[in-house]
Amino acid sequence: MMKKFLLTLLVVGASFGAFAQFEGSKQIFESPKLNAEKAKHKVVAILPFATKISYKKMPKNFNAEANRDQEKTMSKSIQSSMYTFLLRKASDYTVEFQDVDRTNILLKKAGIADKLEETTKDEIAKILGVDAVLGGSFETEQTKSEAGAIASAVLFGGFGGKTGTGTLTLTLNNGSTGDLLWRFFKTMNDSITTSTDDLVEHMMRKVSRNFPYSK
């Protein structure tokens, strides 16, 4: 009986530990200018996210070019997931969000689609014709093979195996000056069940009360 109790306690403790690991830590910054500036905003653009995928132990037959392609795909995928989330809850916000297809076409026409880190936020906002730009970055370090992750998911009853750690940063810059108005930073653990939609959904649930444009 005691052994069964201790085993149950161990499983519950492990589950809480796993959940706490997934939650990670978060930090929020708000500029003193935020309230005054956001009141002037009507249209906000969502930029492709700067994405980096690295490995704790380099996989066999690693292909640097394929890894870069995966980073680019994830960059646009997070951007699209963010737009979908905000569009779905449009009535909850005080601004409109520019269609990401329009955003990406305008960035490409201006020749800066691959040079966002070399361009100031006010220059980007002018090109896009918006009042502010919402962007950010996602960095992940893969620590476990997909096969190992699937085995862990089965072991934990579908909880999802941890395959890596990630840091997700969301930033809001004023369009007229380029000033940083707001920043949200969160660390989280990734799993085989986590899509970019899941990542964004989880992050926005945590930031909802502090999101600058929430009514």
UniProtKB/TrEMBL annotation:
Highest taxon of the lineage = Bacteria
What name goes with this protein? Answer: DUF4136 domain-containing protein
| Residues spanning the signal sequence | 1-20
Which UniProt keywords are given for this protein, alphabetically ordered? Answer: Signal
What organism is the protein native to?
Answer: Pedobacter mendelii
